[in-house]
Design goal:
The structure holds two protein chains of two kinds. By secondary structure, chain A is α/β, with parallel strands linked by helices. Chain A is 39% helix and 13% strand. In chain B, strand 1 and strand 2 form a beta hairpin. Classes of the chains: A alpha/beta, B mainly alpha. At the A-B interface, helix 9, helix 10, helix 11, helix 12 and helix 13 of A face helix 1 and helix 2 of B.
């Protein structure tokens, strides 16, 4: 598949057109979506109108944006005017947002063509896309396995060649983990780098929107387009988007990279070997590798699975059958709300709402939520101490390669443990990315994770590019 | 930390969260939520006295804008997505009155 940068260049030069690129994309979707269950909604008419408008703009001689005519897939928790947005939940089935997420406005302004909405674990709660009310997504590399989650549909869209790029959201690893399992680059930006306006909230202090792409350069291109201050998100960083594409080939000469014991411990042998090989590749490119231990990271899973559900229980209180989505009628308003929420939410969402409600309830707040917020502080301090010694950190993204359907659904803890390497970053608000590096069981891709302090995206992309080249993708 | 989670605790939490659970769901959730809370006990190994809680990664303060009227979402477009709307308002079943 051609890169997003190449498609945009071809559309700008006239070697191709936005409409032709869109039809190519729709053709692959038509051929593979039934099997893979990637898109919950394909907005053919809307996308054709957007593509035709770009081609008309070009024929009038107007300048086109950096993503001119590039089809893009959007995770179905991002709002787009008039396009059904479900969060893979029955409670929002049929709802059409009356406004665009800021990222959607920015993509449109850059000339991108949103083709449709992709499947996810309901309200982004899960690591396999098996929690979707509309059925699981299959991994295009091996349809008997999960694509990861929660942004499994957005990863699968790119892995299947339906689009060259997509957007997902990452609360505890929901971009990096599916990127690893589908052989893609996936980026969780610094908290506040990308506006959350129009992203349906799961855990507001952890959620960030970020890109999926086949290449580091494409991921940098998309992030550059969607990043930057937005007055509509009060947690948005007060600065414009950083230059990222220009730094992709900066390399790692003279950088110190910490290989973190807690971010590989317990991973499959092939994953550990891939991370070690990645360290060697960075070292060959001039980086100094330092092995280090950050014991505090071992406790972040517990803190995360109290903080995220606590915020979710509050955020999801808005789904009560009054203003949007499903309503199940009943005698009085309280019974209506209870009937609506009981019918509209799936088991995992109910589990997390209850966990969060419990952790926030009188008598338990200090013991659970309060403790978790303190562990969050320790996590941040531990990362800060590490970044005084090194520039970036290296570890695994996931303990293993893509797993089979049903392999981790027996009890919730088994699935939660799959997020152990990605969660610390979200608690700290730092950026991290996953880049494919080597293969494991059954020839499936392995992702290695690069982490950095706040606003270190340009350095992360440069290091990922070194690994991409070393892994044979010049 | 606190004692093990009981079935009554789970039933109470479900009521607070406006969810109704079947007896089977109550049993299952009691066990599953108990597992997660049990795992959370590993935080007890830390001395957290004197550690300040972090609710937000960058410690933001309130953000305010100038008090200028700006256009907001179109009322009719918003109400068109509501399950029930009457006279430019969201409509809901009875809120006050005799207990059923």
């Amino acid at each position: 598949m051609r890169s997003a940068a190449q498609i945009a260049a071809d559309v700008r030069s006239g070697a191709s057109s936005a409409r032709a690129e869109l039809e190519l994309s729709l053709e692959v979707i038509a051929r593979r979506n039934e099997e893979l269950n990637v898109f919950l909604h394909v907005d053919e008419a809307g996308a054709r109108a957007v593509a035709d408008a770009i081609d008309e703009k070009r024929s009038r001689g107007e300048a086109l944006g950096p993503l001119a005519g590039v089809p893009i897939a959007l995770k179905d928790n991002l709002c787009q005017v008039g396009v059904p947005t479900t969060c893979s939940s029955r409670i929002l089935e049929g709802w059409r947002p009356p406004y665009n997420a800021t990222v959607v406005d920015r993509l449109l302004a850059a000339g991108a063509v949103p083709v449709g909405k992709t499947n996810l674990d309901e309200f982004a709660m899960g690591s396999s896309t098996e929690n979707s009310a509309f059925g699981p997504t299959r991994n295009p590399l091996d349809p008997s396995r999960v694509p990861g989650g929660s942004s499994g549909g957005s990863a699968a869209a790119v892995a299947a060649g339906m689009t060259s790029i997509s957007l997902g959201s990452d609360t505890g690893g929901s971009i990096r983990q599916p990127a690893a399992l589908c052989g893609l680059v996936g980026v969780k930006p610094t908290y506040g780098m990308v506006s959350r306006y129009g992203l349906i909230a799961f855990a507001s202090s952890l959620d960030q929107i970020g890109p999926f792409a086949h290449s580091v350069a494409d991921a940098a291109l998309v992030l550059e387009v969607v990043a930057g201050h937005d007055p509509r998100d009060s947690t948005s960083l007060p600065e414009p988007a950083p230059a990222l594409v220009a730094h992709v080939n900066d390399g790692v000469a003279g950088k110190k990279v910490g290989l973190v014991r807690e971010l590989v411990e317990g991973a499959d042998e092939s994953v550990v070997a891939a991370v070690r090989a990645a360290a060697d590749a960075l070292s060959d490119a001039g980086a100094e590798i330092v092995e280090l231990s950050i014991p505090e990271l071992a406790l972040t899973l517990s803190a995360y699975y109290l903080i995220a559900p606590a915020e979710a229980s509050s955020n999801l209180a808005r789904f009560d059958g009054v203003r949007y989505g499903l309503r199940v009628d009943a005698e009085d308003v309280t019974a209506m709300m209870e009937a609506t929420r009981t019918a509209g939410f799936g088991a995992e969402v109910k589990r997390r709402i209850m966990l969060g409600t419990y952790a926030l309830s009188a008598g338990y707040y200090d013991a659970y939520y309060g403790q978790a917020l303190k562990v969050r502080t320790l996590t941040i301090q531990a990362f800060d101490a590490a970044y005084e010694r090194v520039d970036l950190l290296l570890g695994a993204t996931t303990p293993g390669v893509a797993f089979a359907f049903g392999a981790k659904t027996a009890d919730p803890m088994t699935m939660y443990l799959n997020d152990v390497f990605t969660i610390p970053t979200n608690l700290a608000g730092h950026p991290a990315l996953s880049v494919p590096f080597g293969t494991g069981e059954a020839g499936l891709p392995i992702g290695v994770q690069l982490l950095g302090p706040g606003r270190s995206e340009a350095q992360l992309f440069a290091a990922a590019r070194v690994l991409e080249i070393a892994d044979g993708r010049p | 930390m606190s004692d093990a989670l009981s079935r009554d605790d789970v039933a109470k939490v479900a009521r607070l969260a406006r969810l109704s659970l079947s007896p089977e769901e109550l049993d299952l959730f009691t066990e599953q939520l108990g597992q997660v809370l049990e795992h959370a006990r590993d935080m007890n190994s830390l001395d957290l006295s004197g550690v300040v809680a972090t609710a937000h990664p960058f410690g933001l303060t309130n953000v305010v804008r100038a008090d200028v009227v700006e256009p907001s979402l179109d009322r009719d477009a918003v109400l068109a997505e509501a399950p029930d709307a009457r006279d430019h308002r969201f409509a809901v079943p009875r809120i006050l009155g005799e207990a059923p």
